[in-house]
Specification:
By secondary structure, this protein is of the alpha/beta class. Helix content is about 35%, strand content about 15%. Strands 6-12-11-10-9-7-8 form a seven-stranded mixed beta sheet, with helices on both faces. Strands 13-14-17-16 form a four-stranded antiparallel beta sheet. Strands 1-5 form a two-stranded antiparallel sheet. Helix 4 runs parallel beside helix 5 and helix 7 runs parallel beside helix 8. The radius of gyration is 23 Å and the shape is globular. It comes from Pedobacter africanus.
Length: about 425
């Protein structure tokens, strides 16, 4: 579409936005009595206004029912996770049986690798993207060492070509094909945390399976951000945190996906706990682990009721939005407008002060736009903060800005560009 770099245009776009009222579902941080333009949902989503009431309901249940809350009340805790499963499934393109809220992200990554990283003979290698979030790097390194391998030999990192910031799908697929029968696991992020690149997950999955490998994804920056079809893409497993684009609060509960094709596989190992035991037989307290059907069988520890209530508050807003498709349509427009506004800033400055390293094609990115500031990057970021625009800083000179369609609008984007231009003229 044809954009205009003025406030009237931005406000007209917001007036036409069918999702505009969702912004009122969230609480914005304040500075000097004014709300921030919050562009940091890639790191921590905003608090839903209903979060307190959902926590309050569970605290009331605890108060009024105490231990009976496990089986009594409006949302008995024993089965509370099932209410979330129904709302989570459409966000990642799965059946409710294939998903389960539990634990935190890296814990779940380890638990899933116990089941799906099964090195044998010369098939022991793991392919991942170079520059993955450090937690993934550490988890994979430790799993490889646990199995007795040297990470330098067992881990293959696919890096961008010299002078480029993002990965070419052809290079990813070539790395998978080139390693052939030595690959045990392909484990990528869905969206790269630094560049905001959305990898071609269906192509990666197909190539990994053709090589005889298991394929999994860390969806920390993808779930709730981009449209996913994990079941139809035949992804083996995935996990994600829920506190970024899904607004479940700091350290909020994580979740897993396991494709239903693995449910009857008796050869899969897992670290077991009482909560993953067959639900109908659980209280018989018998020896010998028998997993509950579906992803629930990967549970280890007790349902985390309070964190789940925060996640539930946000999931209800996704339901109100119509889940991902309407949000994706708005997100693409917001990022396209941010690209346009940044280009206008550079044009006014007479140089490319701000280089966008996020892919320019809509299909290859989500809500995050990563910008390299060529001059006085940290000063620019600090000045944005001082002017009530809260993005995200990454060394050495990258500013991440994420207009989240649930609560950001076109006016936010326009004002950000306006402030960038003003700040740049003052600093440079």
């Amino acid at each position: 579409m044809i954009f205009e770099n003025n406030l009237a245009f931005a406000r007209n776009m917001d007036q036409q936005d069918p999702l505009r009222e969702l912004r009122n579902e969230f609480l914005f941080p304040q500075q000097n009595g004014k709300p921030f333009i919050y562009l940091c949902g890639n790191s921590l989503g905003l608090q839903p206004k209903t979060a307190r009431s959902h926590i309050g309901q569970q605290l009331d249940n605890w108060h009024n029912l105490a231990v009976e809350g496990w089986f009594e009340g409006k949302s008995p805790w024993m089965f509370y996770h099932k209410e979330l499963k129904k709302l989570m499934a459409p966000i990642v393109g799965a059946s409710s049986q294939e998903v389960c809220p539990m634990n935190t992200l890296t814990v779940n990554l380890h638990l899933l690798m116990v089941s799906f990283y099964r090195p044998s003979g010369k098939r022991f290698k793991i392919i991942m993207e170079a520059g993955a979030f450090p937690s993934d790097q550490y988890a994979i390194e430790s799993q490889v060492r646990f199995h007795g391998y040297d990470p330098k030999e067992a881990i293959i990192e696919v890096a961008p070509k010299a002078g480029e910031h993002t990965l070419r799908t052809a290079d990813i697929l070539a790395a998978i094909t080139g390693q052939g029968d030595e690959i045990a696991l392909v484990l990528f992020g869905g969206v790269n945390y630094f560049t905001g690149q959305w990898y071609d997950m269906p192509a990666i999955t197909k190539a990994g399976h053709a090589a005889g490998a298991i394929v999994g994804f860390d969806l920390a920056h993808a779930a709730g951000n981009v449209p996913l079809q994990l079941h139809n893409w035949d992804v083996d497993f995935a996990c994600w945190c829920s506190y970024k684009y899904q607004n479940s609060g700091p350290g909020g509960i994580s979740a897993i996906f396991v494709h239903e094709k693995h449910f009857q596989d008796k050869t899969i190992n897992r670290f077991a706990g009482w909560w993953g035991y067959q639900e109908q037989e659980r209280f018989k307290m018998t020896k010998g682990f028998v997993p509950e059907a579906g992803a629930d069988g990967w549970q280890v520890s007790c349902t985390q009721v309070i964190p789940m209530s925060l996640y539930y508050a946000s999931l209800r807003i996704f339901e109100k939005a119509g889940f991902i498709a309407p949000l994706r349509e708005k997100s693409q427009k917001l990022t396209a407008y941010l690209f346009y506004v940044i280009a206008e800033v550079n044009k006014s400055l007479g140089e490319e002060q701000y280089q966008i390293i996020t892919p320019g094609t809509l299909e290859d990115r989500g809500a995050q736009v990563s910008i390299v500031a060529r001059h006085k990057a940290r000063e620019v970021f600090n000045a944005l903060m001082a002017n009530n625009i809260l993005g995200d800083w990454r060394e050495p000179n990258v500013i991440r800005l994420s207009p989240v369609p649930l609560y950001n609008n076109f006016e936010d984007v326009f004002i950000t560009g306006e402030q960038l231009l003003k700040i740049s003229k003052e600093l440079i």
